[in-house]
């Protein structure tokens, strides 16, 4: 089973690791595998759309790079949608639904924001209505809170809290989607650095039932090795250090930094490679994505990352 | 004496924890009694500070400084429980509240409860009278402004008039719309949730006054002239727009930005003249090629970062901008933090 053979892929990870970029690249990689894919941004975020030059945000799907769709959803829009679909409410009740009682209520119930958005996603995936697009795959850019794992726990929170009623039913449907590794995969994104790798391994270790869902771990921002490994390096180092030319000593400072970074990165990636499968107790692919330098990611960068992901995951 | 408060805001991953820890160290080096409150659920600061386990109470950090440095990591649930125990009308009410399922969910999972408890902890530290300076790392958030908006939103949940009507549906003036709204809620959420919520609001009523007072105190502390706000960011193209938007949002909250900290900035190589192969000592050709290519690689990144920093400065509206250099391998120790101190804004 390839990553994109599941209907739902949830991309998690700490803030700043490049989740949004990886989510977009995954959707593009899936389209290379012939899937009709869309990437979903939550809480009204619109980072992916912005990367591809789309202005503002839109609850309705918009095409991204011609081959996949992007949508940005909010809990309130998802609730409205839910009201239309599930509650068959008349116009007066629908008006009430939008009033301050409901706003207060959905703000006051923990996990409900997450649950409502997952409800929209689940619905889009499993029972799209006539006018909705039909997707093989939805890639969700999870919020950074709690490494994105709180999102996965929201259905359980709700089914613990409410024992009957439409929210309870919704939570049950989402729980079934989320507990099935054939239908849902979690992708954990991290960086090739010591602490992010430790945090990722801790996260995997602390996951409960969601462990079975982890489809792949992505190391984002791997630098190429600018200084080749060489048996001569120690001698060259000493020559540079002893040089009367200050430019050569500056060059040594840059090279030392580069070598230190490379060494630490290699060690961190190695620890991740070994650790992921050990912690999860099964072989799980660790995909490596090259660092985009400098920091600004554009559409062509995301396409290149999609190619790299496709190549690494198509045979995983 | 009110301690100084230094708040490090920013989106998740910007480097708030690192900046906060470095500022704490700088203050300790100036001879102050500094405490760093970190929120990040990961062990990042604990690692950098060489502490195995940070607790919910300040622990000393062995720093080479004339003052003292302490650090703690917010435990949101423990802080909430402390608050309930301390301010409940009587111990029995407190116990029942702690056992209420809706309370459990609110205290651990309600959006904004992290921010709310960070403010509560800040207030506790400010009241303790043991600190000259408190450095605050803010919870990971989609938006930097969440820290300033969430606490009041969460507290309002506690005294939400509409939901409080559940406690005594018959009493008070409840409009038709609200009654209808409650019916809809019952239809969609199920009765049991409403019963838990109703009990929660019954129990929490006695707390409301204390919670409101504490929020008021934090509100004033954050706006006092003893408090400064720094936005921690990184040098990328979207950052200047984020800074401008953040300043505008702060203004709406009657707050102002005091400084910008740009994290992980690549500095340009310092070469007197371009290098060429003739200046290098003897070495294999591939190594020589790699070394000669290195300065221009670093320089390209440094130029992009310098351009981003100057756009950030323009967006920052005249507040001081500090650039922290990117350290190879990131900050992993107290020594690494100490390397950042000379680049910090004046604190």
Overview of this protein structure:
The complex is a heterodimer of chains A (316) and B (347). Chain A is built from twelve helices and eight strands. In chain A, helix 3 packs across helix 6 and helix 6 packs across helix 7. Chain B contains 14 helices and eight strands. An eight-stranded mixed beta sheet of chain B has the order 3-4-2-5-1-6-7-8, with helices on both faces. The longest helix of chain B is centred in the last third of the chain and has 31 residues. Chain B is elongated. Chain B starts with a strand and ends in a 7-residue tail after the last helix.
Task: Explain briefly what this protein structure is.
The complex is a heterodimer of chains A (316) and B (347). Chain A has 316 residues and is α/β, with parallel strands linked by helices. Helix content of chain A is 51%, strand content 14%.
